[in-house]
Amino acid sequence: AQTVTQSQPEMSVQEAETVTLSCTYDTSESNYYLFWYKQPPSRQMILVIRQEAYKQQNATENRFSVNFQKAAKSFSLKISDSQLGDTAMYFCAFKEGGSEKLVFGKGTKLTVNP
Amino acid sequence: NAGVTQTPKFQVLKTGQSMTLQCAQDMNHEYMSWYRQDPGMGLRLIHYSVGAGITDQGEVPNGYNVSRSTTEDFPLRLLSAAPSQTSVYFCASSLTGTFATEQYFGPGTRLTVT
C-alpha cells in the first residue's frame, strides 16, 4: 500500500519570505500523480498544485512550486512571497494511475506571521 | 454550479443512534468518495464509488454504509454511532481517467458522538 509522509507537523514563516514543506511517499508504481491541498481555517479543501510522475519538469502555480525528485520519492512544496492568507493546513496526496483514490499525508500546519 | 454540497454542517449524536450524511454534486462526476479527518491523521478514505450502482471500501469502512443510486448523490450512513466516529467528514468527487484529475471537496460535516 502506498504511504505518504509529511515530517513537519507545524511550520511558521514571516510574511514575504519563502518556505518549503516536505513530503515523501512510498510506492512501487511507475504511473502516479501527486498533489498538494490547502485547508484554511474555513475547512474547505483547495487544490494548490499537481504533478504527473512521468513529467520531469516541476509544476508551478504562481507563488507555489514543487521540487519533484522521483528517484528519492520526494515531493516538496515551495511557497514564495508568503502571504497571511497562506496560513492553513497543507496536505500532500498521492494517486495511483488508473485509480481515483487519494492517499493523504497527515498534514503540515503552516502559520504566516506578519 | 453548486459543486459538492454536504448536509448537515454540524451534527451531535448519542451513542447507538443512526444517521445519514448527505452528499450531492452537480458536475456529472463519475467518482465520489467519503473521507474522515481526525487531528494528526490527515484524511482517510471510508468508501468510494466509480459510478451509479458501484461502491467499494476504502481504508476505514467499518461502521459505515454507502449506496449510489444516482450519479449525483452519495449518502454515508452511520448504522450505530460510536464515540470513535467523532470526526469531520468530507465528501469529494471527480472525473475518472488516467490523469491528474482534481478532486472537488464539499465543505465538510463535523460530527460529535457522545
Describe this structure in words.
The complex is a heterodimer of chains A (114) and B (114). Chain A is an all-beta fold and 114 residues long. Chain A is 0% helix and 54% strand. Chain A is built from no helices and 12 strands. In chain A, the strands form 3 sheets. In chain A, strands 2, 5, 6, 10, 11 and 12 form a 6-stranded mixed sheet that branches. In chain A, β7 and β8 form a beta hairpin. In chain A, 37% of the residues are buried. Chain B has 114 residues and is an all-beta fold. Chain B contains no helices and 11 strands. In chain B, β5 (42-51) and β6 form a beta hairpin. The chains are: A mainly beta (114), B mainly beta (114). The A-B interface holds A 4, 6, 9, 31, 33, 35, 43-45, 47, 50-52, 91, 95, 97-98, 100-107 and B 31, 33, 35, 40-45, 48, 50, 58, 88, 90, 92, 94, 96, 98-103, 105, 107-108.
